[in-house]
Specification:
The complex is a heterodimer of chains A (971) and B (268).
Chain A: E1 2-7, E2 10-15, H1 22-28, E3 47-50, E4 53-56, E5 69-71, H2 84-92, H3 101-114, H4 120-126, H5 138-151, E6 161-163, E7 190-193, H6 213-217, E8 233-239, E9 245-251, H7 253-257, E10 261-266, E11 296-297, E12 303-309, H8 312-321, E13 323-328, H9 335-338, E14 362-370, H10 373-379, E15 382-390, E16 402-407, E17 413-417, H11 422-433, E18 440-443, H12 460-470, E19 474-477, H13 480-486, E20 493-501, E21 507-519, H14 525-538, E22 544-553, H15 567-585, H16 589-596, H17 607-610, H18 628-639, H19 647-650, E23 658-668, E24 678-685, E25 691-695, H20 704-716, E26 723-727, H21 744-770, E27 780-782, E28 785-787, E29 793-795, H22 796-806, E30 813-819, E31 827-837, E32 843-853, H23 860-879, E33 909-915, H24 937-949, H25 960-970
Parallel strand pairs in A: 1-5, 6-7, 7-33, 8-19, 17-18, 21-22, 25-26, 32-33
Antiparallel strand pairs in A: 1-2, 3-4, 3-5, 8-12, 9-11, 9-13, 10-12, 14-22, 15-20, 16-17, 16-19, 20-21, 23-31, 24-25, 24-30, 27-28, 28-29, 31-32
Helix pairs in contact in A: 2-5, 11-12, 14-15, 15-24, 20-21, 21-22, 23-24
Chain B: E1 2-4, H1 9-18, E2 23-25, H2 31-36, E3 44-47, E4 57-58, E5 61-63, H3 68-73, H4 77-84, H5 89-94, H6 97-103, H7 111-116, E6 120-125, E7 129-134, H8 135-138, E8 139-141, E9 144-145, E10 152-157, E11 165-170, E12 183-188, E13 194-199, E14 206-207, H9 209-216, H10 223-236, H11 247-267
Parallel strand pairs in B: 1-3, 2-3
Antiparallel strand pairs in B: 4-5, 5-10, 6-7, 6-10, 8-9, 11-12, 12-13, 13-14
Helix pairs in contact in B: 9-10, 10-11
The chains are: A alpha+beta (971), B alpha+beta (268).
Chain lengths: 971, 268
């Protein structure tokens, strides 16, 4: 049928089916800024303006919009240039992945058209319909307020860092009892605590605009799905309805007979090749316990079969026509029960490879010892022990997994995919599709968030098989429900902490006993749990340590990598336990922790046993930089720590059912996997003195492309705009392990720096030639010129033209790679302020403050964005996110809403402090920052609840009912 | 799928009469979700969007097509309060009063308000004329209502005089709770007559009759009376234990919420 729409001012008559959503129609017409986020429209990525009002195009039929006026971001600034709202989003760093940025911009437009002078609260209210997993909403709100000011004709200031006076002495000690009032800074101020050790730089350390900001804020085609491909087929997967079953019979004849169906694949017609899906370095850790399609299913949501058809609807209809006979087996979901005698054996297949004890569902048994804990416990004055349980959550990138595969003109397999690990995917995909690596190309365009869930070869094999079978391009996009159930999640764990301590507070022995639930498959099961042990047992000094961990199969949806990677679990347990040990000793918690936490020069002894690159580790690493004391001092002042002992504040007299409290957690992470993570980069000069920078590192919204460009620009003496970035395409760029383990700035950044230094050397040689100098040694690069010591200079454009065209022609270019021998830990202090309603058990988090020592932040705005957004994700983990199942292992809340992620109007006050230290092993002093914001929020909130009410809660998340039960138990 | 797009109420009733199995689509915020989840096969849709008659709001007669957005900006305090707690701006722009009754979810956002003020539901059909049903006659069970094939919800009729003191609340709103465990609406008129309706703690919205009776007799409720009110509400709700929450907590939270809303009414 025909409908008439006015789209961005153009009257259009469009043909559509009556059952098509407005989103489908708009995307088909090329309005790629209107994006899929959820079949319910609940992410808001699909939002458009209909007659000036924000509506969900996902749940509106195109027919319902007939005769109405539609606006998308494409219409906001046609041609070149930006609308003031877009300009503000770019300037203040409100964009991370940018997937939902167009929707936010439209929400802002609807608001400002009606209300040119909104309050912050009104802005937050207007953004409630667009869920963001990345920014914590702080900078989008700031951008909208700024745009409003610009549109009212007011002047706005450029974005600059606010330098905050250090509180700690130069030797690193701070007065931790200060009750100095908090600084009065605007919420989005970039709070940088400078270090005198850090040298001056021109581009590094500045809040540069993201190199990909323009395409993201305009909604230009950028993501996997933002392309047209003639003849493309659509794939749909048949997922297991049972938690554990054998496939006795599968009959695909009716599905194949359906007109429009081009392929149906399952275990009977796809070769059985074993693999592990985690995107990790060669050789992938055992067990190799997966095949593309198996004759057994191990969780509700496991793969059974896949269909490729001419339309999504036909593929869905065909999936329903596949007849499967199952022999349903008993299932087990709890990691403790799975190890018991008589528990169902989840991996009983004869070709099972690499599990510790498959009959008892034990995938790995990890042990690591330093000293002798038993002797330590015997010698300690006091021994404390407690068991904690951390639950299962999902990463919830707003862009779900999506991949498109096709055969190019040379009949090589090209996969355009939303992945964090393109190079690992290429290598891992090859044996599954039976092609050599040389015949596969993986392209990573912009991706709409990953947070670890895309450190996985999750669906690339499916589209690869289908493209090879059909010879046609094939697209597979997971729905939100599928993303929850059939992708990856965070490992649940049962953790027992046991600590021997002397009465003076010195740790004598510490033991962490963990049972990690790795679900139906072992992907990331070993290394996530190793990181738990590493973080749990290297944050504090202790002469005797023991880590004992069983990693166990169950029939829950599969855990994998999730930002933090085992550390959030471990640090919840550790920091809750240390809080309670301090209370047990009657000591001030900061004093107790400070006495024991690792400081510069201290050995990270357990790392030698639990590092992923441990086989290569010939020495025990030591802490080379730490701003921990400064972080604590800044955080303490910002949160108002002294109030936690003030009864008038804790028990507000006008609200008798409210209790207030403040909690603290220390955090320590790593910067890359030492001895293993490698990144490569190449740089070449162009005629105008600009440079192409190519690398394999994978920006998933974090700003990695920008930071790496800043590093190159710093070395080459140019502004960032002279660096043209192209990344993460296995045909075009050098190798990189990908985006995980907080490695990109530290490792890939060093590769870029090395390549840039070699290019700078070649430029200097050329400049010396042009300036008739004997030696190039003294030439320096700045302001797009090469300068001789005597003040003469040539421009980089002249250098380029000279070298490319005029004399002794040579392409100035270099390639370099880097693997780090160390993984210097960033440190952070996390504080939380809460209110607990003792009537309902409801916890309201009022403030989160995190002060982070990430070495030198290469870009303070992207660094702050990592901390702000990371804290809100971490708050979801501690407070309200939880995958909930029925007795049959079916997730009952696989949609956004019942699975609750924080909205713009619900987030607490958040403040990030960037505490500089000079980490000499990192590029321009940098350490990592991406994951540490995930580590401290849950324990800090937990400790704040304890401060408020006395209830010490050992299970996540802090739902009202759990808190209410704990309050009743305390009374 | 076929779609009808009537432009008037008569055309709507004619279409519904001709295709009694058709799905009535107002804002679509519930139906389209089911369609997109493929939990509902829709063969024929009657889109109500273009039917201006349904969007009329005259005093106590609120058309079924009135959106949450209009309720939010409207003159009735509790209705505005509940509308503000619904979904997102996108949902509030298109979701309607009639749609919320058509879906008849036990957690329906408007239901506590309608129950607390004893609203009636007006339904019409081509062949059967107009029926007026009380809220309790209309809402018959979880996702069930008294609508007969061919009937269309046309309006909600409120009593002529609504108590000035009326409060709506959810446990969990604006605080990132997992789900709204309970929602409630409390009203109290000048004579002290008190009503309390609770959602999501029974197969349909329910009224706590004993709590109402007890509180309606109190002109100046003491702390003990408030505690008794809370206890009676906890006693009268009919929640279940499921994978999200226990019956015990839901009872407790119902009592706490009802008492707090009553206290707000008393303070007003």
């Amino acid at each position: 049928m025909k409908i008439n729409l006015t789209i961005n001012g153009d009257p259009r008559e469009l043909e559509c089916r009556p059952d098509e959503s407005l989103r489908q129609i708009l995307r088909r017409e090329g309005y790629f800024s209107v994006r899929f986020g959820a079949e319910t429209g609940e992410t808001g990525a699909d939002a458009i303006l209909l007659d000036g009002r924000l509506v969900a195009s996902e749940i509106m039929l195109g027919v319902q919009a007939d005769g109405h006026v539609v606006e998308t971001v494409e219409g906001l600034s046609p041609g070149r240039g930006l609308h003031p709202i877009q300009e503000a989003f770019v300037t203040v760093g409100a964009i991370q992945s940018g997937y939902s940025t167009p929707a936010m911009v439209l929400a802002a437009k609807a608001l400002l058209d009606e209300n040119p002078d909104p309050t912050e609260g009104e802005v937050r209210e207007a953004l409630t319909g667009v869920l963001d997993r990345e920014t914590g909403y702080l900078r989008p709100v700031e951008a909208i307020l700024r745009a409003a000011a610009v549109l009212r004709g007011e002047k706005v200031d450029p974005l600059e860092s606010t330098l905050v006076r250090p509180l700690a002495d130069f030797d690193g000690t701070a007065d931790l009892d200060s009750d100095e009032p908090p600084l009065d800074l605007p919420p989005a101020a970039l709070r940088v605590v400078p270090s005198p050790e850090v040298p001056d730089t021109h581009v590094v350390g500045k809040p540069e605009v993201k190199v990909d900001a323009l395409k993201l804020v305009k909604g230009n085609p950028a993501f996997v799905d933002d392309m047209e491909m003639r003849g493309m087929l659509h794939a749909k997967v048949l997922w297991s309805p049972h938690a554990h079953a054998r496939i006795v019979r599968i009959d695909d004849s009716k599905a194949r007979a359906l007109p429009g169906v081009r392929a149906v694949l399952h275990h009977e017609n796809v070769p059985r090749v074993r693999y592990a899906s985690g995107g990790q370095s060669y050789p992938n850790p055992l067990p190799h316990d997966q095949v593309s399609f198996d004759n057994k299913v191990r969780y509700v949501g496991d793969r059974v079969a896949v269909v490729a058809a001419e339309t999504i609807e036909t593929a869905e209809a065909a999936v329903r026509l596949i007849e499967v006979e199952y022999e349903v087996l008993p299932a087990v979901f709890d990691e403790n029960e799975a190890m018991e005698d008589g528990a169902p054996v989840i991996h009983d297949e004869p070709d099972m490879e690499g599990a510790y004890d498959a009959v008892r569902n034990i995938v790995h048994h990890i042990e690591a010892d330093v000293g002798d804990v038993e002797t330590g416990f015997a010698e300690a004055d006091r021994v404390f022990e407690q068991t904690l349980r951390v639950h299962q959550v999902q990463q919830v990138p707003i862009e779900p997994h999506i991949a498109i595969a096709w055969l190019d003109g040379d009949e090589r397999l090209v996969v355009r995919t939303s992945t964090q690990v393109p190079f690992h995917v290429r290598r891992m995909l090859a044996p599954l599709v039976g092609m050599p690596v040389r015949k596969i190309r993986i392209v990573k365009p912009r991706i709409g968030g990953g947070f670890g869930v895309k450190q996985e070869m999750l669906i690339e094999d499916i589209v690869g098989h289908l493209a090879l079978v059909t010879g046609r391009p094939v697209r597979l996009e997971l729905t939100r429900h599928e993303e929850f159930v059939s992708s990856r999640t965070r490992h649940p764990q049962t953790i027992t902490m046991k600590t021997g301590v002397n009465n003076d507070g010195m740790l004598v022995a510490q033991q962490m006993t963990t049972i990690g639930n790795t679900g139906a498959y072992g992907t990331h099961g070993l290394t996530v749990q190793m990181v738990s042990g590493l973080r749990g047992l290297s944050s504090y000094n202790c002469p005797n340590k023991r880590f004992d961990c069983h990693v166990v199969y169950t029939n829950i949806p599969v855990p994998g990598a999730y930002r933090g990677y085992g550390a959030p679990q471990a640090l919840f347990a550790l920091e809750a336990h240390m809080e309670d040990v301090a209370a047990g000793l009657g000591m001030d918690v900061l004093e107790f922790k400070r006495m024991n936490w690792t400081k510069v020069g201290d050995p990270l002894d357990v790392a030698a046993e639990l590092g992923e690159g441990a086989a290569e580790m010939k020495f025990i690493p030591v802490v080379t930089s730490s701003g921990m004391e400064e972080c604590v001092a800044q955080g303490q002042r910002a949160i108002g720590w002294h109030r936690r002992t003030d009864p008038e504040w804790r028990f507000p007299s006008d609200r008798p059912h409210i209790r207030r409290g403040i909690g603290f957690a220390m955090c320590m992470h790593g910067s890359a996997i030492s001895g293993l993570d490698m990144g490569g980069a190449s740089i070449k000069i162009n005629d105008d003195g600009s440079f192409n920078l190519l690398f394999g590192a994978t920006d998933l919204g974090t700003g990695a492309d920008t930071i790496l460009a800043q590093i190159a620009a710093e070395v080459l003496g140019t502004p960032v705009e002279d660096i043209v970035v192209y990344a993460a395409d296995t045909d075009m760029t050098p190798f990189d392990v990908g985006a995980y383990a907080s490695s990109t700035t530290y490792v890939s950044g060093m590769a870029v720096k090395k390549a840039a230094e070699e290019v700078a050397r070649q430029i200097s040689e050329r400049a010396a030639l042009m300036l008739d100098m004997g030696s190039p040694g003294d030439i320096s690069l700045r302001d797009r010129r090469a300068w001789a010591p005597d003040g003469r200079s040539v421009s980089l454009a002249e250098v380029a033209l000279h070298s490319l065209h005029q004399d002794q022609q040579h392409q100035i270019m270099a390639t370099a790679s880097y693997v780090a021998p160390d993984s210097p830990p960033p440190y952070a202090a996390q504080f939380a302020e809460v209110e607990v309603d003792i009537g309902t058990g409801q916890v309201t988090v009022l403030s989160l403050v995190m002060a982070v020592d990430c070495g030198v932040p290469i870009n303070p705005v992207t660094s702050a964005g990592q901390v702000e957004g990371g804290m809100i994700q971490a708050l979801g983990y501690g407070h309200c996110e939880e995958m909930v199942y029925d007795d049959g292992g079916r997730m009952v809340n696989a949609r956004l809403g019942p699975y609750k992620i924080y909205r713009s109007d619900e987030v607490p006050r958040i403040e990030a402090y960037l505490v500089q230290t000079m980490e000499k092993s990192g590029p321009f002093g940098a350490k990592a920052i991406a994951e540490i914001p995930k580590d401290g929020v849950a324990p800090a909130v937990r400790n704040a609840i304890a401060n408020a009410t006395g209830a010490r809660i050992n299970n996540l998340p802090f739902t009202p009912e759990r808190v209410w039960a704990a309050l009743n138990a305390t009374e | 799928m076929d779609i009808d797009r009537p432009r008037s109420l008569d055309e709507t009733l004619a279409a519904a009469g001709e295709y009694p199995d058709a799905t009535l689509l107002a804002g679509g915020t519930d139906v389209m979700v089911e369609v997109n989840f493929r939990t509902r096969q829709v063969r024929r849709v009657i889109s109500l969007r273009g039917v201006a008659d349904l969007s009329e709001w005259n005093g106590t007669r609120i058309g079924a097509g009135v959106t949450y957005r209009r309720m939010e900006l409207g003159p009735i305090p509790a209705l505005a309060q509940l509308a503000r707690t619904v979904g997102s701006p996108q949902i509030r722009s298109v979701g309607t009063l009639g749609g919320n009754l058509g879906t008849a979810s036990p957690a329906g956002d408007t239901h506590p308000f309608l129950a607390a003020c004893d609203a009636s539901i007006e339904v019409r059909s081509r062949d059967g004329g107009t029926r007026i049903l009380s809220w309790s006659e209309f809402l018959t069970g979880p996702k069930l209502n008294a609508l007969k094939p061919g009937e269309v919800i046309t309006a909600v009729v409120l009593p002529e005089h609504l108590p000035a003191r009326q409060e709506f609340g959810k446990v969990g709103v604006r605080s990132a709770m997992v789900i709204s465990t309970v929602s409630a609406c409390v009203m109290r008129d000048e004579e002290g007559r008190t009503t309390v309706a609770l959602g999501a703690v029974g197969p349909t919205v329910l009224r706590a009759a004993r709590a109402e009776e007890m509180m309606s007799a109190e002109s100046h409720p003491s702390a003990e009376a408030l505690a008794e009110f809370s206890r009676l509400v906890s006693d009268e709700v009919r929640p279940i234990t499921d994978h999200r929450s226990t019956e015990a907590y839901r009872r407790h939270a119902s009592g706490v919420l009802a008492r707090r809303l009553l206290e707000r009414c008393l303070a007003a």
